[in-house]
Design a protein that fits this description.
The chain has 9 helices and no strands. With 220 residues, the chain is mostly helical. The longest helix has 25 residues.
């Protein structure tokens, strides 16, 4: 009794056609496999440029994009106890920095209260005060004393006349008048034995030559 053999292809042309078809499919896969494999085009391009480090960097960047796509951008905790511990630590940190926190968001508003540092106090900033900003008060008696020290002769203003003449002097002039008047005592100037000297007149003349122009404000 003879067993029947399996059916075989007797036509060699058919076998050759199948072999050629398989070879063509393999060659097509070798050429176009980057289109089917994710990231294959990047690997082929970097490999042709000859920079292996750049290739590895691009592959890592591509894998990172895939990882971020499947992974949530928010950090989660495994248990509710771990999450509660995070909120307790956050509350302790907020209380520690509360003294220097400039965030004015009310507590009842459902927003994340970020820490906002306060600006340094104002005393650290240098404030340049303008000497002409405020009018300097000069008493008529001080003006009369200065007048006797600077100008020679018996013709000196009275207290009433001094109150009118003070208005013609600027704030800087009044400060200088007060400074010169403080160089001598009242008893030494208003006594009968007072002897005039050129020293204080030279001080006033030097001040007028070095102070520069005054800003005049005229109201019509």
């Amino acid at each position: 009794m003879h067993l029947e053999l399996p059916v075989t292809l007797r036509n060699t042309n058919i076998l050759k056609a199948v072999r050629d078809l398989l070879g063509a499919l393999v060659k097509a896969w070798q050429i176009a496999w980057p289109l089917a494999f994710p990231g294959g085009i990047v690997i082929i391009k970097c490999w042709r440029e000859g920079n292996c480090l750049k290739t590895v960097t691009r592959i890592r960047a591509w894998l990172g994009q895939i990882r971020r796509y499947f992974r949530s951008p928010y950090k989660t905790y495994q248990t509710l106890e771990d999450e509660a511990g995070y909120w307790r630590a956050s509350e302790r940190t907020r209380q520690a920095y509360q003294a220097s926190d400039a965030n004015t968001t009310p507590v009842g508003v459902p927003l994340v209260r970020y820490y906002v540092p306060r600006l340094p106090p104002a005393y650290r900033e240098k404030v340049h005060a303008d000497s002409e900003a405020r009018e300097y008060y000069l008493s008529p008696r001080v003006f009369c004393k200065w007048h006797r020290m600077v100008f020679r002769g018996p013709m000196h203003p009275t207290l009433q006349e001094a109150a009118k003449q003070i208005r013609y002097y600027s704030t800087r002039d009044r400060r200088e008048i007060y400074r010169i008047s403080r160089l001598l005592t009242d008893e030494a100037v208003f006594c009968r034995k007072w002897r005039w000297t050129m020293r204080y007149a030279a001080m006033w003349k030097q001040w007028l030559d070095s102070k520069g122009p005054d800003v005049a404000i005229v109201f019509e």
